[in-house]
Every structure is written in structure tokens, then in C-alpha cells.
Amino acid sequence: SNDGNSATWVKGMQQAVSQHANLIDLLAGINPEQLTPEMESAKSAGIPVVASDAYSNGQKADPLLKGVVDVPYAEAGRVMADWVIQQSHGHANALVIESNDVVSSPKEAGAAVSAFHHNCHTCKVHVMNIPVSNWASQTQTQVESYLRSNPTTNYVIPVYDSQSEYVLPAISLAGGSGKVHVVSYDGTAFVLKYLQQHKGVVMDVGEDLKWIAWAIMDQEMRIMAGLTPVKNRPTTTRSMAIPPASGPRIRPISATVSPRMVPLGIDWFIPPPPRSASPCQNIALHIPIFARQQA
After folding, report:
1. Which residues lie closer than 8 Å to 198 by C-beta, 6 or more apart?
2. In angstroms, what CA-CA distances link 140 with 146, 156, 267?
3. Phi and psi at residue 247, in whole multiples of 5°?
4. 30/51 Cα distance (integer angstroms)
5. Neighbours of 257 (CB within 10 A)
6. How far is CA 137 from CA 6, 27, 166, in A?
């Protein structure tokens, strides 16, 4: 179970150790640093612990872990920011919502902010932290209050798309429907329906869940078989931005992703806008994770 509550994580770890599990997987954002006593107990019992879909590529893993299956969270953050820059014609005023109780959240949010600062000097960005355990109780009120105080905000970027469930009502209550757009990450099914139905979500970067599941099982079976865990080897993917003589300064973009995702190929492409439509005359993003945008 992963409800964002560390007490639930502790209970699950203790149950796995008591039942002599062959392996324990800390899946989808569980922070290993909050489970040090439980991981030490698992190690003493000879039970390997893996963190999968938790760390961003390049993040330092807890030394008690036997292996990891990383995800390019930082790359997702850059993709979201670059897409907003292109769609806003270099005039984004964005609210990024991170959840620092999730181990990868600072990496993803930080990469998005860095992309805004590096690629668009005319864009504005503000960061708000709402822990996952407080999404239901705090998101709507905090986002609504922020939007009322900052009425020129035109994009809200929750780093995990399930939070959109609480962001969209806040936008509506603040009078931002049709003017404030949601861009996010994860490819969660109900959020993709929001996108398809034009309900405020305009782009969602997502993971291919089958490929991630295969990567997780491959890593875990290697560990249980006594083999050496697979390590990430960063691979560079390229994109291009050609700024015109005048207008907002938007710099070229580059990216690094995990080779685990490479077999998916280039699953999406943002076509260049008409030359008269954007200060960034020709921008294309090629990322080996999938994304969907409104037609």
C-alpha cells in the first residue's frame, strides 16, 4: 500500500519481514530514508530491498537498497516546462506544485524550474510544496488562494498528475477556467480522460507502465537469482529551438534519459508552430517516454 503515510509503509515492511518475503519493493515514491530501521531488519533477515519508480535518474540511492529501477523524473520536469514555454509563446506564468515527501519530487520540480529559467527569461515561475498526504485537505484551498492573489497565472504544473483532481476545482473556484491550464506528469488513466474531454488538462507526460513493470521484474528477478543488478546508463536525446531576432529569449534545449525507456522509441513529437505564431520559431522535442496533448 502507498497512501503517502509513512506509518503505512512501516507496517508493510514489518509484515513483509515477519512473513519472510523473498524481496521487498518500495514502489512509486516511497522514501527509503524514512524506513531505515525496517530496511536494517530486512537486511538482517536476508531480504533484499529494491526501490522502483522512486528515484530520478542520477539521484543517490539509500545504501541499504540492494537495487533500484529509476525513472527520468527530471527529464519529465524539463519536458513540461519546455512544452509550456512553447505553448505560451514565451509568456508563461506558471505555478509548479511539488510534494517533497516523495523522494523524486524535488528533482522533477527543480528541473522544471531550471528549464524555465534557462530557456525563457520572460517566463515567471513559482513553486508550492504540498505533501501527498495533504493533497485532499490542502490542494484546493492553497491553489485557489494563490490564483486569486496572482491572477495572471496561466499554467499550473503539479509534478504528479493525480493531484489534478484537486487542482481543477481550485482553478474553477478562482475563476480561472479556460484561462489557467494544467500540465502534469504520470499518464494516470483518469487524468488522460480529463485531457481527452478538454477538462482543463492540456498536456500529460506519461510512463509506459508495461515497460516499467518489465524493468522492475527484470531487476528483481536478477537480484533474487543472485545476479548483479542492472545500472542506468544515461543516453542523450536532442531537441532544437531557433529563436527569432526579437521576442522572448528561448534557449536551445538538451536532455538526458534512461536507456531502459529507449526501446519505446520516439513516441511523441511537438511539431513546430507556424513561424508567425511563436517567438520560438522551430521547436521540437524528442523524448523516449510518451506524452499526450489535446488535438
Report:
1. 294
2. 10, 12, 33
3. 105, 180
4. 8
5. 22
6. 17, 24, 9
All 3 cell numbers of residue 236?
542523450
**pLDDT tens digit string along 172-195?**
999 999 999 999 998 888 998 898
Coil/strand/helix, residue 205: strand
Q: Which of 202, 212, 292, 280 is nearest to 246 (CA)?
A: 280
Residue 48 C-alpha from the chain's centroid = 27
Q: How far apart are CA 118 and CA 50, in angstroms?
A: 35
Task: State the residue for C-alpha cell 506524452.
Answer: 291
Cα 227 to chain centroid distance, Å, stands at 30
Determine what percent of the chain falls in helix, strand and coil, rounding each to the nearest 5: 40, 20, 40
Confidence of residue 55 (pLDDT cuts 50, 70, 90): confident
pLDDT exceeds cutoff 90 at 255: no
Residue type for position 28: A
Burial class (CB in 10 A: 0-12, 13-18, 19+), 89: middle
8 A C-beta contact, residue 98 and residue 91: no
